[in-house]
Specification:
Layout: H1 25-28, H2 38-45, E1 68-71, E2 76-81, H3 91-105, E3 111-116, H4 124-132, H5 134-142, H6 144-154
Parallel strand pairs: 2-3
Antiparallel strand pairs: 1-2
Helix pairs in contact: 3-4, 3-6
């Protein structure tokens, strides 16, 4: 129990963070077209905070670079995330946080699709349906209490 609240996963397994990517000169040159790739997307979402624990989604292995598919030419980003337990009640909130981070960070031309890794959650179909519904996502972000929680997940923690 944390502050009187029952956690879904009180003792999650913590994974080691991958190192920072070294940027090339062409990636730093604003005049050179640099296609967005899976590592760039991973770098955007890896530090998102878990809503229940003082850990990042990368540390909990909820997001992995191998579960990111980017097509810069077609302006599509597809992400699968894996909740730490099959009955995670925070799965929709985690997916919403990933989606919001990418919508705020990527050029408007990108279509962002966020889904649960197949077979990793009991309510996979329902959560995926919510995350794919533009109207439901927009309505969720109009809820000030929910938006505040999403923003907390997206706030960079000091080390």
């Amino acid at each position: 129990m944390s502050g009187g609240i029952q956690l879904d996963n009180a003792n999650p397994v913590v994974f080691e963070k991958s190192g920072a990517r070294q940027l090339t000169a062409s990636e730093e040159d604003e005049d050179v077209h640099d296609p967005i790739d899976d590592r760039e997307i991973f770098d955007l979402i890896r530090s998102i905070n878990d809503p229940e624990h003082p850990l990042s989604l990368e540390e909990l292995n909820v997001v992995e670079q191998i579960r990111i598919k980017v097509n810069d030419t077609e302006s599509t980003v597809g992400i699968e995330f894996t909740p730490t337990i099959p009955h995670c009640s925070m799965a929709t909130l985690i997916g919403l946080s990933i989606k919001v981070k990418l919508l705020r960070s990527l050029p408007n031309r990108f279509k962002v699709d966020v889904q649960i890794t197949p077979g990793s959650h009991a309510s996979e179909e329902a959560v995926n349906k919510q995350l794919a519904d533009k109207e439901r996502v927009a309505a969720a972000l109009e809820n000030s209490a929910l938006l505040e929680v999403v923003n907390q997940c997206l706030t960079t923690r000091s080390a």
